[in-house]
Amino acid sequence: MSTRLANQGRLIDRSKQVTFTFNGTSMQGYEGDTLASALLANDQMMVGRSFKYHRPRGIVASGAEEPNALVGLGEGSRFEPNQRTTTTELFNGLKAISQNHWPSLEFDIGVVNNSLARFLPSGFYYKTFIHPKPFWKHVYEPFIRQSAGLGKAPDKDSRDADTYEHFYAFVDVLVIGGGVAGLQVARVAAKSGAKVMLIEQTAHWGGRAPVDGGTIDGEPVDKFVEQTVSELEAMDNVTLRLRCMGAGVYDHGYVLGYERISDHKPGAQGPRHRLWRIRAKQVVTATGAIERPLSFAGNDVPGVMLASAMRDYVVNWGVTPGERVIVATNNDDAYRTAITLKKAGVDVLRILDARASAGPLADEARALGIRVDPGKAVAKVKGGKRVKKVAICNQDGVGGAREEVECDAVAMSGGWSPVVHMWSHCGGKLIWDEDNAHFRPDPERPPLGANGEGFVVAAGSANGPLSLGDVLSDAQAAGEAAAKGAGFKPKSAKAPLGEATEEAPMQPVWLMPANADIQLRMKSWLDFQNDVKVSDVQLAAREGYESVEHTKRYTTLGMATDQGKLSNINGLAILADALEAEIPKVGTTTFRPPYTPISMGAIGGEARGEVFQPIRRTPMYDWHDRNGADWEPVGQWRRPFTYVRPGETVHDAVNREVKNTREKLGLLDASTLGKLIVKGPDAGKFLDMLYTNMMSTLKPGKCRYGLMCSENGFLIDDGVVARIDEDTFLCHTTTGGAERIHAHMEEWLQTEWWDWKVYVANVTEQYAQIAVVGPNARKVLEKLGGMDVGKEALPFMEWRDGQIGGFDCRAYRISFSGELSYEIAVPASQGMAFWNALLEAGKEFGVMPYGTECLHILRAEKGFIMIGDETDGTVIPQDLGLHWAISKKKVDFLGKRAQERAHMTDPDRWKLVGLETVDGSVIPDGAYAVGEGVNANGQRNMIGRVTSTYYSATLGQGIAMGLIKHGPDRMGEVVEFPGTDGKSYKAKIVDPVFYDKDGEKQNV
Amino acid sequence: MSKPISALNHASYDGIARIEECGLQGMITLRGDLSDKVVIKAATAATGQKMPGQREANVEGETGLCWMSPDELLVLVPYAEVEAKLAEINKALDGTHSLAVNVSDARAVFRVSGPYAREVMGKVSPVDLSKEAFQPGQIRRSRLAQVAGAFWMDGADTFRVVCFRSAADYAFKLLKVAAQPGSEVGVY
Amino acid sequence: MLILNCPYCGVDAEESELSAGGEAHIKRHGPGSSEDEFHDYLFTRENPKGVHFERWRHSNGCGKWFHAARCTNTLEVFGTYPAQTTEPPKQIRDAITAKRPGWSWREFS
């Protein structure tokens, strides 16, 4: 059984007991424990089940590479699935539940998949869920959805209770990884004067070197760590960050750091996670190395663990995963685990070394009384929910002639792979190291930065070296290289001298025993989380999968949440063997960020709840909100769709507003419409290029409606232009167009006509603009008093500056409703007061604010187009019958040449018409008109579509506009619009102006 | 005219930094050739401040000149004086190709102050705000998370932040989150 | 995420302050141009693996358009320069030649 030892545990504080629960059972641990070490201390060998076969799973590693021990953490609004126990710091009150089983961890129905394993080979889903076709929707899809996903999603009603943030940091040298290599790199770089940031994913500096032993400059490793950290802490140019993982390295020195601020103290004030958005001139990846498992049958049984992890549990947390342990290895490093265990009082029954001979560590082990068996291998681990026996055979064989030994834990080591993720994210290339059988960074081919030079340096065991001495001298060189790369001159100094027992060469072992039969291979796991076995990869190779990327997707090898940290190299070695190719020829799959999963909260940062996205507000926003506004998003603006009164439906409210505006007096908050000042001697010439019609001939004091097209000829905006003086125009844009058209103008001025004398300024938000609309519009303005707004003093399509009701304003006599209408612009800071003044003065005239839906209906009744309804980026003004607004005199304007292209002048283009439903109903939004015949797919031929469709309270029936093939030539014809509701709508083609065709109402 | 009201009417918040909406600030966008003596004279005469160079802000209280781009200045004057100053500038620029326009009501202005002000700003703008990189006298146009903004420093630990009036509510809430208690980063 | 130096305000701006504007140095063809000329003006673009000239705008910044010469393969930036030009300036072309001898892009080399 796994248990807490009486001594050891450099990271735990035995005086501080911590209580937590696992699947509801209360357990004890110590401060400094990880959830994994605490579970092991409580003999919780089995902590979950695998994804596909629901096999019992135990803790296999001690850090970020853990594939198995994933749990659901917390509850309610702080529940999070798939959290690695090995990187979860223990705290009082922690609640963890195991996953991927039903009804319980011990007794699980899904384990039936395990017995069916031989019928569920790689590609099973692809091969099975194809026929019969109708099964897909009702049988296969529900089945797959049911079994998809690891862990349980948080309850849909619980909102994450925590906050998150981003932080932008700028450094010369960023060092990822706070082991002895990272510390030394940081020291060297910092001493050169560079601004250095050092981040470490765990809560402790020093990495695994203090566990592995040896000395640095004659002192224990812990002492070196302590001294270096305090030296770095004292330097102003150094930022140190624990619990901060390097998540990804991106172009031009951009790195994401994932800081877990309060995961170990939930509910603490402040953000839970911080995503560091770091720009570094040089990035050093001192990310260490990860031990590889050995592929033998039963290597997934709880109690089989990486040798280094077992050593970590003993040294760091005073926990032994077993009392009688067998060590299986192909290298000397695992002997350290055997020695550590033995010295801690644990029985080490055997060291099975696949090699013929080992180095001095073997002598030390033997001297401690440990039996070392060279050339031996694990044939099979026996046991279900925990290890019971190991069958031993010769490595050089098929797995026969076994000897069985009872034990309760197995430590395995297949060698070490440098963590090359951060090196590789941005294009760093790898080379195959024959001696250590691993990929390591190729220093000749680093990721390239903005200046074309490498900006990532790998250091320590992340760069290949595995012995303490080599690690430190490599770190020294990396620190100097990074300082130089960042433009600093490193001080010359000798690397600290690291000394540790010498090791004999490792020997690659990709399968144990080397010629294991199919029965064994079917139980030899490569990917523990996704249940991919040696036999699966071999099957993929037989079925023709040659590319490692394809094999990965076919077998799901390395596609689990651990992204194959343990399985990748073993898997591709098996694939290479099956393909009879060399490992470097097969290559690795792509390393993609993040290194381990990071929270969605951290990615979103502050952007949630009220600041999820900017909501733009006009000066009258609060009034609208208090008075029943049914908000409509228009870009980032919120505009009242309508103002709903108690007892009304939205539809009632809209109809009320339409009738009141037509009959009495309506007010519209039009502040969102864009207002751009265009000024200069060439302003008229410039606007003539931007608008399809002539603007340079407009007289000061007058307004003109204009259309804007892109160079493709398509309509992009419209609005009323007012000429302020000889040099100055004010261009109104649509609500969504202000920033876009401002940018459009700047683009042409800066990049094409840079010698034209024109300046543009966006003054949209300087003004609150209110449309005063309806037969009583003039009356209310006259009552407020001030400037003359009479028919002669301010005729239709003119503007004047003056005062109304004591407010400085600019009054435009323009109409988007067909009614007598003024748009009054006042300073934004006066907007609310002016709105109130209009409401007060307008009482006797039946004043009523109206929203955007009423605005739309009023304009549709008049046949006025709306950018975004009648246009969709493929519509030219000619389609909309707007020939009158396209100058024939102008030699050039944006879009003119495009509108001469053959496709644009095609008489078959769909053209704008009005549509009047035969029975008075309303055509559904987006409906298409169908004509005679069917197309190649057997669908009825389309001859047009609806662009705007409303119920007109004024006319008491449904009206619409639409683009119809040959529409203007088909007046009076009835066309059919099938709805998605199964009904078909019939509408007569009519003139798009439904109301007041002669424009008498607006011109009074 | 009635009493002018700024976007958030002096709302404030105290976290690891103090966030205040400053109320109305007179602002004039001045576009022209910034090397033209007439333009320089018009701007400096209206404010009594020196002409700013690239990315400089010469600001004292409610009066100042901020460099916005090679052909744009932001002229700060007390709100009550903006129309008079605008007329003065326009008069001085008569005959010179330029554009001066009142944008006071189109903006909202915040003050972010306190020992952690740099860190609060460093959470919302992709800008190096270390003391070596950013100091009083400089202006930076960038983004405040998802909206455009500009800021300069009035003193060692005080920022003035400008954004569009319509985004004031967003910017204020954004800065509140960035200044929430317990969110000190500990780098600046 | 790229960093480009804005030649107008001098800021080393990260991509989130910038907007991409497609290929640089495209000559406008308007009324009077042939179908082919106009078609090429609107639709024909280079798609090089290597040296490329692009338009960018410092949109969350000083608002100015500028040009960038960079390598689409390695993301190396050879230089940025103001947009008020119809061809890459000599010092930019020289900077590219120093790094990519024999380069060519459209009619430039």
UniProtKB/TrEMBL annotation, chain A:
Family, according to the entry, reads as follows: Belongs to the GcvT family.
For the GCVT N-terminal domain, which residue ranges apply?
620-890
| The protein's name in its UniProt record | Sarcosine oxidase subunit alpha family protein
Q: Where would one find coiled-coil regions in this protein?
A: none
Keyword set for this entry?
Oxidoreductase
Q: Where is the FAD/NAD(P)-binding domain?
A: 172-419
Keyword Magnesium annotated? no
Ranges for the Aminomethyltransferase C-terminal domain?
911-996
Origin superkingdom = Bacteria
Domain SoxA A3, which positions? 523-604
Q: Which Gene3D superfamilies match?
A: 2Fe-2S iron-sulphur cluster binding domain, sarcosine oxidase, alpha subunit, N-terminal domain (3.10.20.440), FAD/NAD(P)-binding domain (3.50.50.60), Probable tRNA modification gtpase trme, domain 1 (3.30.1360.120)
From TrEMBL, chain B:
Which InterPro entries does the annotation name?
SoxG, TrmE/GcvT-like
* Entry-linked Gene3D superfamilies: Heterotetrameric sarcosine oxidase, Probable tRNA modification gtpase trme, domain 1
Q: Which domain of life is it from?
A: Bacteria
Q: Which Pfam families match?
A: SoxG (PF04268)
Q: Where is the signal peptide?
A: none
This protein is called what? Sarcosine oxidase subunit gamma
Automatic annotation (TrEMBL), chain C:
Tell me the superkingdom of the source.
Answer: Bacteria
Q: Which taxonomic lineage does the organism of this UniProt entry have?
A: Bacteria, Pseudomonadati, Pseudomonadota, Alphaproteobacteria, Rhodobacterales
InterPro entries, per database record: SoxD, SoxD_sf
Q: What is this protein called?
A: Sarcosine oxidase subunit delta
For this protein, the record's Pfam families field holds: SoxD
